[in-house]
Automatic annotation (TrEMBL):
It comes from Halanaerobium saccharolyticum. One of its GO terms (biological process) is proteolysis. Pfam families: RadC (PF04002). Belongs to the UPF0758 family. Keywords: Hydrolase, Metal-binding, Metalloprotease, Protease, Zinc. Transmembrane segments: none annotated. GO terms for molecular function: metal ion binding; metallopeptidase activity. CDD domains: MPN_DUF2466. Residues 24-150 form the MPN domain. This is DNA repair protein RadC.
């Protein structure tokens, strides 16, 4: 006889709130508004990598802080990102992270992790719609999709 552990996966909601935002994400600006309103991503003193999970109709199913880093970076791995996406039955994702310096220019690491996440998503059938980099002003952001880094 052997002992075998049986596991059950559950998603437990941390907290929620009512926001005057569109439930369906149709633009980078709409996604930016969610990241700012729900996570205050434009005001954080450390770099935070976050994501919005979407269903097949691009409706928000969840908002996650995936990684909280330091002033100059946050560790992000496909495993941590897609674990959350799979648990929420997501069809698509939108990523964002802030640059505490206030300058949203993408670094080589930003571009590299974006490409890695897009490739990982294609393998498991979860689309990456965009990756936003936010500065410290409301309209100071860059869409890596608009910049041509995401097809």
């Amino acid at each position: 006889m052997i002992n075998i552990q049986k596991y059950n996966l559950q998603v437990i909601k941390e907290s929620g709130g009512r926001y005057d935002l569109s439930r369906t994400i149709r633009s980078a600006a709409a996604a930016r508004d969610v990241f700012i309103e729900v996570l205050n991503l434009d005001k954080r003193a450390e770099e935070v990598f976050a994501m919005i999970t979407l269903d097949v109709k691009s409706k928000i199913t969840g908002v996650f802080e995936v990684s909280i880093g330091s002033l100059s970076g946050a560790l992000v791995t496909p495993r941590e990102v897609f674990k959350r996406a799979i648990l929420t039955n997501s069809k698509a994702l939108i990523f964002a992270h802030n640059h505490p310096s206030g300058e949203p220019e993408p670094s080589a690491d930003d571009i590299s992790i974006t490409k890695k996440l897009v490739k990982s998503g294609k393998i498991i059938g979860i689309d990456v719609f965009d990756h936003l980099i936010l500065g410290n002003e409301n309209d100071n952001y860059i869409s890596l999709k608009s910049e041509g880094y995401i097809d």
